[in-house]
Description:
The structure holds three protein chains of three kinds.
Chain A: H1 2-6, H2 8-41, H3 45-59, H4 63-76, E1 86-90, E2 93-97, H5 99-126, H6 129-137, H7 142-157, H8 159-177, H9 184-194, H10 199-228
Antiparallel strand pairs in A: 1-2
Helix pairs in contact in A: 2-3, 2-5, 2-8, 2-9, 3-5, 4-5, 5-7, 5-8, 6-7, 8-10, 9-10
Chain B: H1 2-19, H2 49-56, E1 59-63, E2 66-67, E3 71-72, H3 83-94, E4 104-108, H4 114-119, E5 125-131, H5 134-139, E6 141-149, E7 151-156, E8 171-175, H6 179-186, E9 190-194, H7 197-206, E10 211-215, H8 216-226, E11 230-233, E12 240-246, H9 252-267, H10 269-277
Parallel strand pairs in B: 1-4, 1-5, 8-9, 8-10
Antiparallel strand pairs in B: 2-3, 5-12, 6-12, 7-10, 7-11
Helix pairs in contact in B: 3-9
Chain C: H1 12-42, H2 48-51, H3 57-94, H4 98-113, H5 116-127, H6 133-161, H7 164-172, H8 177-207, H9 219-227, H10 236-266
Amino acid sequence: xxxxxxxxxxxxxxxxxxxxxxxxxxxxxxxxxxxxxxxxxxxxxxxxxxxxxxxxxxxxxxxxxxxxxxxxxxxxxxxxxxxxxxxxxxxxxxxxxxxxxxxxxxxxxxxxxxxxxxxxxxxxxxxxxxxxxxxxxxxxxxxxxxxxxxxxxxxxxxxxxxxxxxxxxxxxxxxxxxxxxxxxxxxxxxxxxxxxxxxxxxxxxxxxxxxxxxxxxxxxxxxxxxxxxxx
Amino acid sequence: xxxxxxxxxxxxxxxxxxxxxxxxxxxxxxxxxxxxxxxxxxxxxxxxxxxxxxxxxxxxxxxxxxxxxxxxxxxxxxxxxxxxxxxxxxxxxxxxxxxxxxxxxxxxxxxxxxxxxxxxxxxxxxxxxxxxxxxxxxxxxxxxxxxxxxxxxxxxxxxxxxxxxxxxxxxxxxxxxxxxxxxxxxxxxxxxxxxxxxxxxxxxxxxxxxxxxxxxxxxxxxxxxxxxxxxxxxxxxxxxxxxxxxxxxxxxxxxxxxxxxxxxxxxxxxxxxxxxxxxxxxxxxxxxxxxxxxxxx
Amino acid sequence: xxxxxxxxxxxxxxxxxxxxxxxxxxxxxxxxxxxxxxxxxxxxxxxxxxxxxxxxxxxxxxxxxxxxxxxxxxxxxxxxxxxxxxxxxxxxxxxxxxxxxxxxxxxxxxxxxxxxxxxxxxxxxxxxxxxxxxxxxxxxxxxxxxxxxxxxxxxxxxxxxxxxxxxxxxxxxxxxxxxxxxxxxxxxxxxxxxxxxxxxxxxxxxxxxxxxxxxxxxxxxxxxxxxxxxxxxxxxxxxxxxxxxxxxxxxxxxxxxxxxxxxxxxxxxxxxxxxxxxxxxxxxxxxx
Lengths: 231, 297, 288
């Protein structure tokens, strides 16, 4: 326990990275996933086909490989993130949102979006037929049917699966640690290396922080679900 | 298992050759020939570890597999190549074991695990760019050094960085868990951990990070591959003395390792190996370093 | 629900508009693919030297035997152990005794919330130096704990999904609790759970790639040897491309098996709904 107190600042900084990775990739994946879901249920065959291909490709690729792609291959095709260079000074060290961080966020976003898309699509399928039919009957076009009627209800039906996808994302941020972002996993590895005798304490401590973060997320999702439930 | 592998090889080869021109990667090596001594009876004193190993005819080595020039392996089953590996092979051969045979177990030893490997007897020797330090000598035995090197900086060819001092507060890449990474932070730069040095070099070329830093010998090897896109700069800001690791339980191994290394220094094998793996075109190999005295045992 | 419920059958004007969109989208997609290929070409990523290992027998053998085979071995050992773990803790969570239920619940919740990477590093350090098998077991055990925790939930839900009358009838015949569980409930539950089980295999297979942080054998290990070999001139991109493709093919095969098993043994209807804290693989839920 003393070890944690002694390194509290470094650990807090590491989890700041974890949370930032999660927030950026979480928002990004929701937006991209919604667009993909719209593509997959929409009327234009090319887009439907592209959306399906995307989901199948990305879902079956290990996350590590997706992120490595953005870290190594993307710069070769001029897809660089060097324009991102924000240093947030904190009392305990700088939080650096740089090109490496951005590449990892993009990788996590691309990966998670495929799962968001699938969760939403199953949500769209769960919306009663009559809703879409009624929307069409009053003359709404596809975009109107989706944004005004179907998607709002789909979101409601998909809160639990979406929450699961986002929880998986939170845990997946550790993969960015293996590719150059100094987040929680990197810090734990370093601490274990320097204090091999404290292996159990360190692991259980870091694991419990993750358990707490996960529980916070599922608590929020339960509250959201309660609030928007139609009874 | 062997039989199945042969079958699969044949099938794979057939497939590959039918699809396209047949590649022949992975079949050249210009390391010096090392062949096993043939008479070890009575060569080592009874009860020494060397006698035991020679008697058993088997040995396990901890080495690197992804550091070109030092320790690098083509496929998981092949015998690794490199300067570190050649030193290990000399030692193996001195025990009358054929270094190319299956009697040698090559195991990847990471920075994190080298000491434990030796302490627990998983490997008999470590030849893995193993810097000699006082902390490590508390835990394991280290003989040598057989190479001296120091940490330098690798930057893009058009960079005006001249040494680590120009990189205060900038990101500098090095391998995860390495001493190099700690040294970078100690010099005031921001360390970026990476899975491998090859990946670091790629990041430098891409402009993802302004520089990377580790032992000069590794950097020179990387710079050679990028053909003028990058350069090695700056004075060495650390001194690394690379040696062979052995278990503290067998202090008698120190003198034996030193004897074998001395012989290699004198008969030119050391120089030949250095030139084959680390030497740049038209550059002389340096003088072999002076070995540390072994504590009387 | 098919997509057509969301939009009307297009009239002539809508059709014209859709055609424009189709062409625009098509052009955009093709253009971006072409751009990527051209840029890679300009970067020399298609040079023979960089692709040579993937047409050389020595390396193809290494990729297949030391790569694919080892990866599959790790994934399947992990899944087999995870099934055992899942059965024990899934049944434990259903126990009537609070002293058995709560610890099982805690263990399952813990391992579902802990990132696999953290568990892997922990087990790797814990196993320490058990020769070169320690990275292998670090991967297998970490995946066992995570997938086992997810499967425990699947088992619990599966057993709950067996109609109540089945257990009641068995009790009426005078069977004991263990008997009811082993001979009546489990066999029926397994049938319901098969698709979820196989899609968990996909998750496990993908996660074996994380093993590269503990230097585990398998595809990522062979890949590391290939791209750090100077002979091939820094061929990270071709290597990542090849390894990614292999993973995709393996996973598509597994998914195809899952679909087939589902059709063959379960039928279209009965779908198991499990709230998964872990990686929510939508293919675990059958299409409605």
